[in-house]
Design goal:
The protein has 410 residues and is an alpha/beta fold. It folds into 2 domains: 290 residues, 7-stranded beta/alpha barrel, CATH 3.20.110; 97 residues. 49% of the residues lie in helices and 11% in strands. β1, α1 and β2 form a beta-alpha-beta unit.
């Protein structure tokens, strides 16, 4: 029987306030509290609450035959706690059904796996602890930020104790192979890999309301038929997407919520398909083949690589400068400075600096709050520079205190 794995990413960054050069060293309100509150409450009303309510209804109707999985970034969780606690409560209700699996990821939705193994480990452990606190279970499946994966990252994830990981079914990696099978890491066969079926996932996430698309309108019946027509040897169709697809990226008026309500029933009606979570699939399926990924892949843009975040000199400079601060920030042992530094690690800040204005340009413009990637870079670097000044100040104060103590003892 063919399985469907529904996985949704839930994330909201802490958006930066406009931060001028002249603010550096004098004022430190890095984050736009009003904007973050407004956007979180708006998305909660348009997406999280109605979508969670629909899923709760589907679980009530189909019981544990209907399964779904989520990963919630630490930054989203913090904003739920501050601005929309009712959303967190609705996720806890879903968790209580036993039909939902929550995955682990980096706390700050960061790109730390590409730069700092130590910071990556710390963020994963922080996330694990919070997920267990909120939902009663430690995650057993891992999803890296933006589905970024490589052989090296897979080894690091395996060292943290995970046996299953999600990533992109990139064409240049798969070649002729199908994304609809279980795979394993070529460098560590113990790590199983579930690959996103990007064509079917993106039909919902990006093309659902596109009236110029030859398949518009996309009905649940049509979509279910497409899945049933996949190769009979396929074992699992992985539908991975941002949860904000429902109600935010695709507005309620498009019929996206009705699609979500009807789709599971049609799957069960087919008689030869079911829903399973990543951990269930990991227990049930054996790898069809090892997957060799020497260079990082992701789920972004047509290239499925890192160029959405690290594709130009501005992004590279910001990324380098951010992690140059790591040891200095952590040596201060100042919880507030470390927290702010982690907020700046969110992949969104680098995405806003992207200059890919060709095939993927509309996507980058749609999600970008800045008038240009250059404005995003300048604003980010002003904030990062001020954080650096504060870190240096803390270090000097610490040195003066140690010197004073030494002098007093003498």
């Amino acid at each position: 029987m063919k399985s469907i794995c529904l996985y949704f990413q839930v994330h909201q960054p802490f958006r930066l306030a406009t931060y001028r050069f002249f603010d550096m060293g004098t004022d430190h309100p890095y984050f736009d509290g009003y904007s973050n509150r407004f956007i979180m409450q708006q998305v909660a009303e348009k997406c999280y609450l109605p979508a969670n309510n629909i899923l709760l209804g589907l679980i009530g109707k189909f019981g544990k035959d209907f399964r779904v999985s989520f990963s919630l970034s630490g930054l989203a969780i913090e904003q739920f706690e501050r601005y929309a606690p009712e959303v967190l409560e609705s996720f806890q209700k879903l968790a209580a059904t036993g039909s939902v699996e929550f995955l682990a990821e980096t706390w700050a939705h960061s790109l730390a796996s590409l730069k700092s193994r130590g910071e990556f480990r710390e963020q994963v452990r922080i996330h694990e602890k919070k997920m267990k606190e909120l939902f009663g279970k430690k995650p057993v499946t891992f999803r890296n930020t933006e589905l970024i994966y490589s052989n090296e990252i897979g080894e690091l994830v395996s060292e943290l104790g995970y046996k299953t990981m999600l990533t992109e079914g990139a064409k240049h990696i798969l070649g002729w192979k199908s994304p609809n099978l279980m795979y394993c890491s070529a460098s560590n066969p113990k790590l199983k890999l579930l690959l996103k079926n990007f064509r079917l996932s993106d039909d919902i996430a990006f093309r659902f309301s596109d009236r110029t698309w030859s398949e518009w309108p996309l009905t649940a019946d049509k979509f279910t038929q497409w899945i049933t027509k996949t190769d009979a040897r396929d074992e699992v169709v992985n539908l991975f997407m941002d949860y904000e697809t429902f109600g935010e990226h695709q507005w309620a008026e498009t019929g996206i919520f009705e699609f979500l309500k009807v789709f599971p029933g049609l799957v069960f009606k087919s008689g030869n398909m079911n829903f399973k979570t990543p951990s269930q699939l990991s227990a049930d399926l054996q790898p069809a083949a090892p997957l060799n990924v020497p260079y990082p892949i992701s789920w972004a843009d047509e290239e499925r690589d890192l160029t959405a975040w690290l594709g130009n000199e501005m992004q590279d400079e910001a990324f380098r400068s951010l992690y140059q601060l790591e040891s200095k920030v952590k040596k201060t042992k100042d919880a507030d400075l470390i927290k702010r530094w982690r907020y700046l690690q969110a992949s969104d800040h680098f995405y806003y600096m992207c200059t890919k204005w060709f095939s993927d340009g509309d996507v980058h413009k749609y999600f970008n709050p800045y008038s240009s990637p250059y404005d995003a870079f300048i604003n980010y670097m002003n904030v990062l520079s001020d954080l650096g000044i504060r870190v240096e100040s803390q270090q000097k104060q610490g040195l003066r205190k140690r010197t004073a103590k030494t002098t007093a003892k003498a």
